[in-house]
């Protein structure tokens, strides 16, 4: 991943941003009213949180990315993430759905995962919607990257915030704008 600043403000503070701490810079529109944290967790390039927590669980949308081996499918990448959840102490992890939704030139995979995790000292039921966007260099298909967007919410709040996540995913676009000129 690239170093330096991870986001550049294009519009108002949260709604439109240019995320550059990914293998390729992307533009994204965050859901209106969602809050940008003052610090990001390690490995996260962009994050926003819902303004109204559900009994102590704040729904979040995070974005990260990495290079993507030509020898792996997006489904392989998604499976590795489920393994990492188990290694991070999550319990009762169940992949509820996984679907390839992209095309050959723009591959994508979605995955919904139910899990239990300690939040605020209490074991909570959570749902993650994960979207893996495969980016393939048209000039050299061996150069590939994956951008991952994840909604994490309390199971009780998931349906309320899922549409905002879907809108954010639809807004993602790769850009070739030099972020140094956007400061």
What does this structure look like?
With 183 residues, the chain is an alpha+beta fold. It has one domain (7-182): Mog1/PsbP, alpha/beta/alpha sandwich (Protein Transport Mog1p, Chain A), CATH 3.40.1000.10. 15% of the residues lie in helices and 40% in strands. The protein contains two helices and ten strands, in the order βββββαββββαβ. The protein has helices at residues 74-87, 158-171; strands spanning 7-9, 16-19, 26-29, 46-49, 60-67, 91-100, 108-119, 122-136, 144-154, 173-174. The strands form two sheets. It has a six-stranded antiparallel β-sheet with strand order 4-5-9-8-7-6, sandwiched between helices. Strands 1-2-3-10 form a four-stranded antiparallel β-sheet. β1 (7-9) and β2 form a beta hairpin. The longest helix has 14 residues, at 74-87. It is globular, with a radius of gyration of 16 Å. The two termini are 20 Å apart. 31% of the residues are buried. Mean pLDDT is 86; it is low at 1-14 and 177-183.
Topology:
Elements: E1 7-9, E2 16-19, E3 26-29, E4 46-49, E5 60-67, H1 74-87, E6 91-100, E7 108-119, E8 122-136, E9 144-154, H2 158-171, E10 173-174
Antiparallel strand pairs: 1-2, 2-3, 3-10, 4-5, 5-9, 6-7, 7-8, 8-9
Rounded to the nearest angstrom, the distance between the terminal CA atoms is 20 Å
CATH topology: Protein Transport Mog1p, Chain A
User: How many beta-strand runs?
Assistant: 10
Q: If classified by CATH, what would the architecture be?
A: 3-Layer(aba) Sandwich
Biggest sheet: strand arrangement = 4-5-9-8-7-6
Percentage beta strand: 35-45%
Oligomer: single chain
SS field, number of helical segments: 2
What is the 3D shape?
Answer: globular
Class of secondary structure makeup: alpha+beta
Helical content (DSSP H or I, runs of 4+): 10-25%
CATH-defined superfamily: Mog1/PsbP, alpha/beta/alpha sandwich
Question: What is the CA-atom radius of gyration, in angstroms?
Answer: 16 Å
